[in-house]
Amino acid sequence: MTTLTTRTKSLRAASGPEGARVRNRKRAARREGAFGWLMISLSAASILVFTALPIVFTFVLSFFSWDIISPPQFVGLQNFTHLAADQSVIHSFGVTGLLAALIVVLQIVVGLAMALLVQQRKSTWARSIFRTAFFLPLLVSAASISIVFSYLFDDHFGVINYYLQLLHLPAVAWLSSSAGATATIVIVAVWQQLGFVFILFVAALGSLPKDVLEAVSLDGSGPIRTFFSIKLPLISPTIFFAAVIGLINAMQIFDQPYVMTKGGPGDATTTTVMLIYRTAFQNIQFGYGSAISVVLFVLLLVLTGLQFLISRKWVFYS
Amino acid sequence: MTSFLSSPVSRRSVLIGGAALLGTAGLSACSPSGASSSGSKTLNVAYFGTQQAADATAKVAQPFIKANPGVTVKFNGINGTDWNDFFTKVLTQIAAGNPPDIVSVATEGVQLFAQKKLAHPLDDYVKRDKDQLAPYFKDVHPSLVEAMMYQGNLYELPTDFNAGNMYFNTNLLQKSGLQLPSPSWTMDDFHSVATSLKSNSGAVPFDWVVRLWGSWTSFMYANGGNLVTEGKYTGGDWLWSQFYANDPAAAGRGGGWKWGAPTANSDAVVESLDYMVELANSGLSAKPDVGGGSTLQGLFASNKIGMSIGGGFWAGGLHNAGMQNGSFDVQFFPKWKVQRHLFGTGGYGIFESSKNKDLAWEFLKSLVEPAAIDVLTSGNSTTPARRSMMTADRYSTTGPKNWQVFYDTLDKLPNTAPIPAPPYYNAMANALNQRTTQAMSSGNAKSALDGLQQDLETAAASVGS
Amino acid sequence: MSTAIKPQPAPPSAIQKARIPHAGRRKVYRGFGLVLLIVIAAVFVLPILWTISTSLRTPAQSFDNPPQWIPLNPVWSNYSAVFQQVPLATFFLNSVFVTGAIVILQLITSTMSGYAFALVRFRGKGAVFAMVLATMMVPAQTTIIPIFILIRYLGLSDNLWSLVIPAVGGAFGTFLMRQYFLQMPSELAEAARVDGASNFQIFARIYAPIALPPMATLAVLNFSAYWNEFFRPLIFLQSTNNFTLPVGLVSLQGNFGTGSVSIVLAGVVIALIPSIAIFLLAQRYFVEGITAGSFR
């Protein structure tokens, strides 16, 4: 990851005899190293104790069978061999992957489009209205907004199907068909989290170098060409960031299916985290639940690593 | 609670209950583990409900606290969408080393807690205090008591219950020129009521919720089917001969329900779920909410639904949702092959890990006093387990007019049985929900139930019972 | 963006003439853009408007279609019912304390560590950063039990600090700040270092001030995340007096969802008001921050 930060050697400008320069440089580097550790100490210690250690615990537990009440029993790799043949686990990864892909792509495309359109507005007033509109959903808790949406998307009594039928469109089986339930969860997740991506893009677009943009507009390039040839490369680090965070979040989607569909109909929206919750907390199989968590964790690790690898090809750091 | 203060029955029973408690407190003062010997003890009660409801319910402990100086009873409301949700949270607390002394558990969790040795059997306490408990058992239908047993032991004293009866929106019935069906109505009658409601009222004739209690499972019971093989554990004679010697309704009772091999894809079960698919396809019922149906009562109360399955708790729920007394009524569930209802019953159990079991038992006894049950069932949020408390007065504010149906379901229909709740209830409830929504969205009940059968077999095997 | 800092564009007249062939097309683009913007913004706001308007209707009207978007006879009693049913002021103060403490502490730790990971060279940086990143990939549902056990061991059960202390070091915040610092020019540091500024001075005087926009972003995101947090408080807190708003409000829903829809939604709206207020306040800092950060 350090390779992403390319920097010129900082002390080249310093002058003096060669020996003193080396000594100085060494001392400065040592001081900088100590400073770096000091700066990260609070975060790192807290993350170590309250996140990393519990994860280690989860790893350890994945080799046990534990029902909370009686002491854990070591079962070796049994949980993992069982898991490899468990259709419901495999299916849940498919569901999660589909939901995550749809959510991340839609979120970035719509979020970026909205940020660009808001950017075009001249009046501060209009900008702040739109900004508030897109950010508003992020301020409501996922659990309570999912309750609201389960009213709105109700097949028979919901407001959405009512208006669809008013427009002579067929009512959609939002919550009672596999495709409908998947769509509903994607819509609600994108609706809720778009504000985050949107704000990131607004900030990124706002910090684009003005001189370059003005030069381009003088050049007579249309807005679409300006976007693809200038803006897109310049904000690629932000897109990358949104994709990494978005994927990590979307792969852990839980609240929306938990409240709106309970993973149904059938197992059409049973995501991996829902399955973990169900296995560990409802069926009280903590060892097996931990094993599924470990697989999800490793999968996310690999996916994020891949993202970082691929990012070298398209992300442009100034 | 207004009913608590206004009803003369309640006030008298407060005095009786208080006196009884004073008596027991006096007795136990001599024993070392007794209540008043301790300077300060706290009984932690895990209560299924909102903290607000828990606080209101905590009133129930006042006579007990007064009788046991230095004792505090803390009601912790744990809210959830269903029992599964509640158990999850209680189990999390246990996992973190924070188990409550007492937990409110309905039929759903009795065997789960008992099988895991989380709950402490009450047999010895009940035998010891038999004289004191005789009036209570006399007042409670034996089927409720039996539903609290597992392998011959009693784990709870029922405080309340709910059977799956049929509720009607009487406004919509009138609009369709219909009247409340007779108690002996059949599935054909149900079908014609639904058809008439559909064409005359414009409302959705019938709606239901995906869950174990009062779901399509009510149809399954009426069709003579069940998810698992029904059986009874032996034992329990100590209780039946002591308290129900002369009660014909207690004949043939055993040591609790023994839920055997899964039968989720048997003909009767498949037929009943197929019927639900047809109801939905013909527009006679809504496709049930996959999310758990928190809106059902609201929809019913706002005249959007003609019929739905509900128990005594619906009276309070509909009243709270703004429905006027008189605009809804209740009747038995219709007869299909049989006229058989399912029910669930609630009560409190003692945790095996509690350090204050004797004290907890004293508290449990105080909870089945009429005054206490009055608090627990206030606002008709559920139905009292004591027959003597089922009065016209109780239902005068909320309705329904036909409130007698609630207890008659136990008294007049002897084949009424609890919902199937084996020790693997949690896994069963999840699988049932999942397979039901699968059947409703695919229209193929048989293949969904084949799946359910497999799920249940796996779950049953993992428990080893 | 405030016009005060923005470099003034050249007088338009001459340039505009040169652009005339494009002007028509550009207008169409902008007009189409505005329509799209309004439609999508409406999609985002309508569910919240429905929530507000339903919270002002009687339970019996709450499912009416078409919904009465503007309640003609608003039923305010749904709101007073919320206050009657739960100790809302206590929940509110608890939420303010927990959210405030987490937001402030995480701002400090994340800015420091994000800066270090981006612009300071030290041994083991890659490994530690990988750990930080990895911790974001574990669903909270799977680590809640070990954390709960840890909390009890620290004697923090049923204590508001049990929510604050584990959240002090934010992996996400660190990542967010690092990404921003990565985009900042390193020349500033070199110039300052030549002038003899210490490592900490370079951070505190030069980089931290221009990192205001991501800090504001982090603060608002953390605010909305922790203000609405449900899973941890539900398990860590036991007494009503310690409940935060989301946990307290959920009790309005009742067992089996038997509570009145209108009252539940009134509760949702009440919890939303401070969020909106904070956002509207913080939005100013966003705008100023972004503007300030936009010159290079």
TrEMBL record, chain A:
Domain of life: Bacteria
Membrane topology: Multi-pass membrane protein
Pfam family, one: BPD_transp_1
Domain called ABC transmembrane type-1: residue spans: 93-307
UniProt-listed PROSITE patterns: ABC_TM1
Gene Ontology annotations for the cellular component aspect, listed alphabetically: plasma membrane
Region (Disordered): 1-23
Keywords assigned by UniProt, alphabetized: Cell membrane, Membrane, Transmembrane, Transmembrane helix, Transport
Biological processes annotated in GO: transmembrane transport
Signal peptide range in chain numbering: none
SUPFAM superfamilies named among the record's database cross-references: MetI-like (SSF161098)
Location(s), subcellular: Cell membrane
TM helices/strands, residue ranges: 35-64, 93-117, 129-153, 183-208, 228-250, 286-310
UniProt family annotation: Belongs to the binding-protein-dependent transport system permease family.
Name listed for the protein in its UniProt record: Sugar ABC transporter permease
Organism of derivation: Sinomonas humi
Organism classification: Bacteria, Bacillati, Actinomycetota, Actinomycetes, Micrococcales
